[in-house]
Amino acid sequence: MIAPPDDCLARNEWICGAYLSTRSEILGDAVVQHLQLTAVSVALALLLALPLAVAARRWRLAAGPVLGVTTLLYTIPALAMFSLLLPVYGLSAALVVAGLVLYSLTLLVRNLLAGLRAVPEETRQAARGLGYGPVRLLLAVELPLALPAAMAGLRIATVSAVSLVTIGAIVGHGGLGNLIYSGMNTYFKAQVLTASVLCVLIAVAADLLLLGIQRVLTPWTRGQAT
Amino acid sequence: MTTLADAWSWLTTSAHWSGENGVWHRLGEHVFLTVVCLALSCLIALPTALVLGHLGKGGALAVNLANAGRAVPTFAVLVLLLLSPIGAYGDWPTIIALVLFAVPPLLTNAYVGMRGVDADVVRAARGMGMTGGQTLARVELPLALPLILTGVRIAAVQLVATATVAALAGGGGLGRIITAGFNLASTPQVVAGACLVAALALLVEGVFEGVQRLAPTGARGSGA
After folding, report:
1. For an interface test with A, which of B77, B79, B183 has the most A Cβ atoms less than 10 Å from its Cβ?
2. Does domain A23-217 have CATH number 1.10.10.10?
3. CA pair distance A30, A35, nearest whole angstrom
4. Percent above pLDDT 90 for chain A
5. Global ipTM
6. Interface contact B74-A163, CB threshold 8 A
7. A42-51, A147-156, B46-55, B215-224: lowest mean pLDDT where?
8. Which residues of A touch B161 (CB under 8 A)?
């Protein structure tokens, strides 16, 4: 019988370099899955949120139901949301994406709507006076002016999504959450800590990336307080 | 549709409501955890936020805390606490994780509420000879109350959600019905559990909204 190696893995330490080097492939796959789930969910949510927010801005009657339903969805805890969607999607990545879309939707619609509503009426009238039609008004004037508020919502939604993906571990599609879940069951401290730290790093990196994009897209806000 | 019908029949089976794993016991655990942790977090966050807001210090802390709270996954913190030495103390990992996630919205909203009080009103209070403590208790606090209550509402809903996640890490609460359903590969039980959790979350939100509708008039009647 070979004597068990006396390294940090055998001693089950929190911080373990050997874990990083021996499991780099698993970690890489989990990070990629985490990023994919987050990106797909937030992108889909954005695609859905835009028409909803524009509709809620145009027709006063639509605003109440749109905000009401999205707020209702946001109140439902993530674990319950994933479970409620189980009969529809089964144990799949689509289940996690669908759940996350519903969450991000709330934050995006609210912020987009706030941004669109904050466009001054004078600006709108000036654009109309210059001969802008409704579509061009929306695309060239209202949406760019709503961008800072929309980006703020996008940042919050993305950071929340990164953190909520971990709950997807319940259906086996949780990116780094899978590692945390299996690490919990096997008392594998290094795995839990590494996956948790990576999760926070992804959230921070995504936030900074979006902040950078926002700076580039809205040069006119530079110099003002964010 | 059949799943919904199955979930309904799961809910209406009285055997599922009694006993250690029954709905009533799990609901009791869930509400107990939520209430205890809400009280603890209010005790920690509100005095801190009121004093910081009154003094006008620590704004960066209040804002960054909320952002950090969003970036750190609840589940990760729960598991980390569970594997740490604290994990040996029964419900404490769950309670600590719950409090950690309830404090940021409480602190941020209370702080923002305190800072949002019109500076002229505060100056007028000082001019009338009020001491710092009196200004805080009689002027700033009532005016900040709506936002403080918003914070309490967000924290309460957050607590209901986090207490659900606690089940993933072996804690009690309604989430256990969902995780048990997953382990049994019983979709009706999973859906039934999810409905119960969602109903509780919406109920808490509804109760707070009701309270909040009444509060501003009561709080502002004598103030502004």
Report:
1. B79
2. no
3. 9
4. 55
5. 0.83
6. yes
7. B215-224
8. 77-79
